[in-house]
Specification:
With 103 residues, the chain is mainly α. The protein is built from 3 helices and no strands.
């Protein structure tokens, strides 16, 4: 890994953090539930990528570190997906409860 490559990756990561923060702070409250569902779908894609990464170690990859990182990525993405769907379901039930109570 060359220093130029590392600097480029760190810069890209920093810009992604700034962009993500700006986008999240500008979202109105009425759009949080649909955006959470979309974020859960993206985390599902991350799980697939992490499983592919974990397969590298299983297939006889060179480093154990990639397998460990892939396992951690799978666990964290699964926590994100399950928690996100639980919160989204709870919010949708709250909205449905308000509609039923108003009749």
């Amino acid at each position: 890994m060359t220093p130029e490559f590392l600097i480029a990756n760190v810069t890209l990561f920093g810009l992604a953090i700034c962009l993500g923060f700006e986008l999240i702070t500008k979202v109105p409250a009425t759009l949080h539930t649909p955006l959470m569902s979309g974020a859960n779908a993206i985390s599902g894609i991350s799980i697939i990528g992490a499983l592919i990464g974990a397969n590298v170690l299983y297939e006889g990859g060179d480093t154990v570190l990639s397998g460990i990182l892939a396992f951690v990525a799978v666990v964290l993405a699964m926590i994100n997906v399950v928690g996100g769907f639980a919160v989204t379901n709870r919010m949708l039930n709250m909205i449905a409860g308000k509609k039923r109570g108003g009749k």
